[in-house]
Amino acid sequence: MNQDLRENLKVGLLGIIAVTLIINTFVTANKKSGFSAAATATEQNTANGTPSSAIATPGNNEVISTTVNPNENPVTPTSNQKKTRIQFGSYMHDFGKVKQETTNKYSFSFTNTGDEPLIITSAVGSCGCTVPQWPKDPIPPGGTGKIDVEYKPGQQEGSQEKKVTVTANTDPGETILTLKAEVQKI
Fold first, then answer.
1. What pTM did the predictor assign?
2. In terms of C-beta distances under 8 Å and separation of at least 24 residues, what long-range contacts does 9-16 make, across chains too?
3. Which CATH number among 3.40.1110.10, 3.10.450.50, 2.60.40.10, 2.40.50.40 corresponds to the domain 86-184?
4. What is the pLDDT of residues 92-111, one digit of tens each?
5. Is 96 left (phi over 0), alpha (psi -120 to 50) or beta?
6. Which residues contact 145 (CB under 8 A, 6 or more apart)?
């Protein structure tokens, strides 16, 4: 009896694996053709505990997805969101000479020079020593804001150049900001 139960479990698990592979193949093929099932978006977001919904529209090659996460800003751009323009006062800042183990702060000021609200979805430093903060609310056309960056060189030494990649509903979708410093040993 125990042997029969094991065999049934093996067959059942193999069946589940086969069905999963078939579904994955179907979803991948449909994504390449520009049509995606609503279940795909729901399945992907449900897996990480985030409730979501999606509408798939054959013919216009677009999936409109809405994700609700109480820990994040509810305003997130979608692939069909209107583009705008962002203009920074400066795209590079040189701290000059700084000491190891210090905190160095700088704010990159910007203006939404486009005709649509500017939505910044992320700002990511090129390493853990560069930590940016950005406005989470949409910036109206003509509005201004700033990306605050903290650079903590730790034990780094010598000439340093760090990047901050700002992602928004702009074209192109990413803007690179640069920080430079000459880190002196303490």
1. 0.59
2. none
3. 2.60.40.10
4. 999 999 999 999 999 999 99
5. left
6. 109, 110, 112, 118, 120, 134, 135, 139
